[in-house]
Design brief:
Elements: H1 4-18, H2 23-34, H3 40-47, H4 51-63, E1 83-91, H5 96-107, E2 112-117, E3 124-130, H6 133-145, E4 150-157
Antiparallel strand pairs: 1-3, 1-4, 2-3
């Protein structure tokens, strides 16, 4: 027999995978993508729901990992991070333990804004926000040259930003 904790776990798991986002949820998500600090009363007016209903829906969206986190989008240049660098990395070995260790190194670097494991010629694509080329050079020594699993890398320096964002087209 399954114990009560295991049953609760499976019930929660099933609820999460069966969670459906409806039109009200989509409207709420569109609005908070633009401004996560919008008061729930204003949000309710915008989507024709009560403040309490908006609150319940936001809580459910968070519980079901539709909303991963609330955050502030900072002005990178105003804070001295004037360089955006895209780096393609090829690894020596794609054995799971080697790949996981390499990924963790990238994830743990505070200057890596985004890290993607990709198909094709390269294995990872990283997006860095750094203050200078000297800082990036130091990071290459730490993340690439000192790591035996990094075979080679290619650096692209962004000359300007055409579009930057993480909003989904809901």
């Amino acid at each position: 027999m399954l114990n009560a904790n295991l049953l609760r776990y499976y019930a929660t798991y099933l609820e999460k995978i069966m969670f459906e986002v409806d039109n009200f949820d989509l409207q709420i998500l569109r609005a908070i993508q633009k401004d996560a600090r919008i008061p729930q009363s204003e949000l309710g007016e915008a989507v024709n729901l009560s403040t309490a209903a908006v609150n319940r829906r936001l809580k459910k969206l968070k519980e079901n990992s539709v909303i991963k986190q609330y955050t502030a989008l900072l002005n990178q240049e105003a804070l001295g991070f004037g360089l955006t660098i895209i780096t393609n990395i090829e690894v020596e070995s794609e054995q799971i333990h080697e790949l996981d260790a390499t990924r963790r190194d990238f994830e743990n670097c505070p200057y890596v804004q985004q890290c993607y494991y990709v198909t094709g010629e390269w294995d990872f694509v990283l997006i860095f926000a750094v203050k200078s080329m000297d800082q990036y050079n130091d990071l290459t020594r730490e993340l690439f040259f000192q790591k035996p699993n990094v075979k080679r890398f290619k650096t692209l320096v962004a000359m300007s930003k055409a579009k930057v964002g993480l909003e989904l087209a809901l």
